[in-house]
Amino acid sequence: MKEVSYKDISLTSGFWKNRQDIIKNTTIRSVYDRFFDTGRVEAFEMKWKDGDDKMPHIFWDSDIAKWIEGVALFADITPENQEKIEHIIDLIEAGQEKSGYFNIFFTVVKPEERFTHRTEHELYCAGHLIEAAVAYYKQSGRDRFLKIMCKYADYIEKVFRFERSAAFTTPGHEEIELALVKLYSVTNEKRYLELAKFFIDERGKEIEHTYGGFVDGVYDQCFKPVREQETAEGHCVRACYLYSGMADIARIYGDEDLKRACEMIFDDIVNHKMYITGGIGSSHIGEAFTISYDLPNMRAYTETCAAIALAFFAHRMQLIENKKIYAEVIERVIYNGFLSGISLDGKSFFYENPLEIIPELRHKDVCVKHGERLPITERLEVFDCSCCPPNVIRFVAAIGENVYTYDENTVYVHQFMSSEADFDGRKVIQQTNYPADGKVTITYQGKPCRLAVRVPDFCEDIETEDGYIYFDVEDGMETELDFTMPVYFVESNPLVYENCGRIAVMRGPVVYCAEGKDNGKVLRDITLCTAGEIKEIPDECFGLPVLEIKAFRRKSKKQLYYKKTDEKEEFTAKLIPYYAFANRGESEMLVWLQ
User: Fold this and answer.
1) Domain range spanning residue 554?
2) Predicted TM-score (pTM) of this structure
3) Given 173, 202, 231, which residue is the final one in a domain?
4) Is pLDDT above 80 for 68?
5) Does 173 map to a domain?
6) What is the pLDDT of residues 149-198, one digit of tens each?
7) What's the rounded Cα separation, in Å, for the pair 226 and 398?
8) Whole-number pLDDT of residue 80
9) Which of 143, 174, 202 finishes a domain?
10) Which of 212, 235, 469, 531 is deepest in the core (most CB within 10 A)?
């Protein structure tokens, strides 16, 4: 299966074009400004010394690298952003050692300790710098940054693969595996691919204890060799970056054992450890997967970067084998658990994306200094650990790469976005307002072939072949589809204890939620009338309709306990898209309702 690159598809209108415009016009500048304010840009000057403010952090390299990559992934790099990027490249070039090594923290803070701390993100930062260099080269044609990072990759290969002189064998935070595959794709230097395979093959041959006993080998997926792993374990972002790298190597090398491991892990995530929003990682302790069906709502960690990493994993699995489930998971992520990570105006972010908020509970532990930890209730413009904001930029910039794949005889349509794609001597034009409605028009130009269009799971009355409908198309042929965009109710497995007796509301691929702003306090006490009329009210602010549903709630009483009655008040509940919660100030929020 072949990929249609983000470079070969441009979004022309609709839901995702609007999001891309917000990112380009607002988010890119806002994130850079916050990174400048916090010292991340200045850190590349390598001037910090003991006693100075803003000591460089171990992952600051990666924050700026993702920002560069995100800017580069857009088709048009503005002169202002070009100047910023070139300035940072100047600083990287000046700060790179003759050996090829580059890392801000271990150059100015701990110069004698490079490659001795597996926990300290050196290879993670290297990976993101490599990805940034690849993206910038592909978009601008300028190869200076690429050459700098090739020199660094050569040094990493020497130290880790040939000399084995580092104090550890595999990265504590996976990421470089993906980057090296991309570096191989633009340089055709197979040794970069082999280095990626080396890091994957070596992982789990022995448990590399480097976390002071706080965690074990499960935390960073080195508890057994990767081909023997069957379940998703540990820190979610690390895990899904690893699984993405495994899928890359499985596809390129035709490694059936690695493919089988990826399939089992993916199945475990989707059927046991994924929220309805596509979020993953139920616990802030280790930012990790826990046991099957442990999906608490108020304490959900569900890091924005973890949702992105899951989409990366699903996309790579789709390149190995066309299965509808991969496209369905990507769709669930992009319209829900990822998109909630950025505000509607593009300026602020959630690191965590809970499925329930009761603001008062954040201040309940009145007699102690540090109470129970709960996710924040309003987005921030920057975090101490600010990996998510630039990750959002690069993900939205390249979101078009999820729309199509193809082989010799078939073009597969996985996602629905108004766009124009040119690839393999073909052109495919999509016109749609999805997910506002389900109408999709696809115009095909090129040699005759089959067009396979995914039918979303919520369309139950369409006969499919493994989830797709097929059309024989010729040059200039137009295909029209009209998927229903129903409002429907979802239950979870009863083993998800918190959701027993509760339902979630979806419209098409979009999860909805209730907010106190519209429905008053104590959302947990609302009972939706599933048999009543559901009104869809257009809303320009949220980009999709607001839902109005008949509902009931108990009358407020002063007593703490009282005899049960059937007396309830009827009212109209108002639900908004989950991705849009917390855009109107702090408020209660709930996905799973009675």
Assistant:
1) 487-590
2) 0.97
3) 202
4) yes
5) yes
6) 999 999 999 999 999 999 999 999 999 999 999 999 999 999 999 999 99
7) 28
8) 96
9) 202
10) 235
